[in-house]
Amino acid sequence: MRRGGSSNAFSRSSHRADEHDDEEALRWAALERLPTRDRARTAVLDHFPGRDDGVRAVDVGRLAPGERAALLRRVASVADDHGRFLARFKERVDRVGIELPTIEVRYENLCVEAEAYVGSRGLPTILHTYANVLEGMANSLHITPNRKQKISVLHNVSGTIKPHRMTLLLGPPGAGKTTLLLALAGTLPSSLEMSGKITYNGHTMDEFVPRRSAAYVSQNDLHIGELTVRETVNFSAKCQGSGHRFDLLMELSRREKEANIKPDPEIDVYLKAAATGEQKAEVVTNHILKILGLDMCADTIVGNNMLRGISGGQKKRVTTAEMLVTPGRALFMDEISTGLDSSTTFQIVNSIRQTIHILGGTAVISLLQPAPETYELFDDIILLSDGQVVYNGPREHVLGFFESVGFKCPERKGVADFLQEISGNVL
Ligand SMILES: Nc1ncnc2c1ncn2[C@@H]1O[C@H](COP(=O)(O)OP(=O)(O)OP(=O)(O)O)[C@@H](O)[C@H]1O
Ligand SMILES: [Mg+2]
Hints:
Structural class: alpha/beta
Radius of gyration: 27 Å
Oligomer: single chain
GO molecular function: ABC-type transporter activity; ATP binding; ATP hydrolysis activity
CATH architecture of the largest domain: 3-Layer(aba) Sandwich
Number of strands: 12
Function: May be a general defense protein.
Bound molecules: adenosine-5'-triphosphate, magnesium ion
CATH class of the largest domain: Alpha Beta
Number of helices: 16
Strand order of the largest sheet: 8-9-10-5-11-12
Keywords: ATP-binding, Membrane, Nucleotide-binding, Transmembrane, Transmembrane helix, Transport
Membrane topology: Multi-pass membrane protein
CATH superfamily of the largest domain: P-loop containing nucleotide triphosphate hydrolases
Helix content: 40-55%
Subcellular location: Membrane
């Protein structure tokens, strides 16, 4: 009897599962018949609360509050395993033959100079401030000679940063790492004079808006102390226009219909939720917070000197998160590991590496004393010393190169430490 009972229960549950599958198949079939534009905005949600059949098709562009919460719950689990999520997304894009755009950054004969008052004149006293303003006006009218001294920060550096590869920027303090990253990201302050050429896929900086294609993560953490971590990242996402590109989704949807391919439902619902509607910044924010391990402190205030908030290491990660939510595909990150332990640094750099390798992004990351396992994650190395590039090339050849010019890495010394040490002595 017990056996009979259990087989009955099994057949009842399998019957319900069949019904659920039928229902989902019907929804998909109905979705197929919609025009491409509507199809790219309609997601099928299963386990929808308050419905017997559990399946429902919703327009992600116009969600009711209950639907929005259900959608966010549904996509929360999709991006749990970042590497797997990226691989599934890439598989979907590859299956219909869409090539994701990549960026190759070249810099040629790049010189950066600063003009500054040196010696006691450089002190910001009240007298000097007024004198500097008056002298500045007199200089512009060519009445008095310019007493500012020119300081050369980068001397005639050239190189290439390739997509699909991670580049590590190393150099002692004051070598010009921040200046090089700012110049490459197109955000050099106007007080610095730049000459030379920087191109993205052959286009010079004045042919496009660099801030849409490149993201510079600052070395300093500047935040509004009263906002929570989630609010800070969400604000950044909304200001900079985050989310997946809707036109990519439309093209995917159109090609999949032509080839009669049913997409992976989990990836499908994530992409739709991240491409349209009010919730798109929230979806991307949640994903980035999870990658950077900030989901535990997402609702804590950031804080400042007067207001106790998140820890220093978490603040550093918030600075990184603010830029990772942007649509920029060329990442320039300045000392993102300061104040972080080596295993957290490894995890963050590894997640960025997965994104760069799978989706074909471009990244230059400067790190201070990376641990050997973090160093191994990089493909290329740029070594700067006193404003000059000492080495720019693959990681595998760096030791051979320095050995050929007489610098041998001692046994049991980390390669990154060795490079940092000799870059101070080479010139
Ligand atoms: N606006 C400026 N005026 C005067 N000197 C400047 C200016 N900007 C940069 N410099 C000088 O250029 C050099 C390189 O500065 P940069 O900030 O790029 O170094 P860095 O490699 O990033 O150092 P760190 O590892 O300490 O961050 C420094 O000697 C700095 O004093
Ligand atoms: Mg710096």
